[in-house]
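subagent[fold] <- orchestrator: predict structure for attached chain, return tokens only, no commentary.
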Amino acid sequence: MTGKASGWFSRWLLPGLAFKAAVIGGGYATGREIAEFFLPAGPWGGLAGLALATLVWSGMCVLTFLFARASGARDYRTFFKALLGRGWVAFELAYALFVVLVLAVFGAAAGEIGHAVFDAPRWAGMLALLAGVTLFAAFGTRVVEQLFAWVSILLYGVYGVFLVLALTTFGHDIAAAFAVPVRVGGDALVGGATYAGYNIIGAVIVLPMTRHLLSDRDAVVAGLVAGPLAMIPAVVFFVSMCAYAPEVGGAALPSDVLLAKLDLPVFRLLFQLMVFAALLESGTGAVHAINERVAGAVQARLGRTFGVRARALCALGLLVFCMVLAERVGLVGLIAGGYRLLAYALIAFYVVPLATVGLLQLVRRRPALLPEVP
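subagent[fold] -> orchestrator:
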């Protein structure tokens, strides 16, 4: 993973793993987002919504990575200046709202985990997350890439074990839930589109990782696999959740409800540690994107590098504000109240422009989108 920057892992999988890190966050990893956006549509409706979100993610990642290569963008400021011109400031405001909201959600989730697992005060979990994100974000892109890779190994492994345990413990309840014939309605598609809409910003967050792409072919492959890489754990979680839909629907930590059903204290601890690791990589990704944007501005205006101390202070100031917000509002309120509004803003300032103006620019600039790798 560190030997060749242009190896297949860095070119095809690392952007997708980074995208997974950006979207998995506090609500996904705890199951709160899955319960909020997909569980009300029922088992089959929820799966339809998850499938739609996966397709949207893959399509938008392909377009984002291609446009980033065409415009030479490695941070969101450069990307949106090329896409929106002077209107890039509108995205900056939406992204600021996104970062504040998701970091507050991550902090609230970390507090809930510490309280549920160790009976610790909620502020203790928030402080642990704050310290971890500040540490990793301070050392720049290479360290952040390593965090994404190693946490991904832990995450996919734990979710795989979770699926096996869920099927063997309450698989009959899962089967019973899916045996009920339910017509897939519009709420399933609305949930999938809304969830995909505000999370697709992850494709912009991971722009520093696209430095490894050698061709448009790499951008297409990396974008196509990003959607499934990010959604596989969500499908595992959702299927297991269907066994106890009414009970987990209003829980702040749906994951902990399901882990209690398994009644395996050691695995419960391992799972919650994995969730904390997911919060760490997601929070680090969001803060790193801010640091890269500030670093570019500092370099352009002052001719100075944005060093480790400056990155750490920038991260710390942002995180402290967000953790205070998390303590005031709470996890359920943040997800239910803020994410839908954010989704509409990101669709207006990112998804629609990229799928229209951006795509047109790509077609004009690059008649052949899949050249051979040089």
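orchestrator: received. Logging for downstream: The longest helix spans residues 141-179. The chain has one domain: 9-365.
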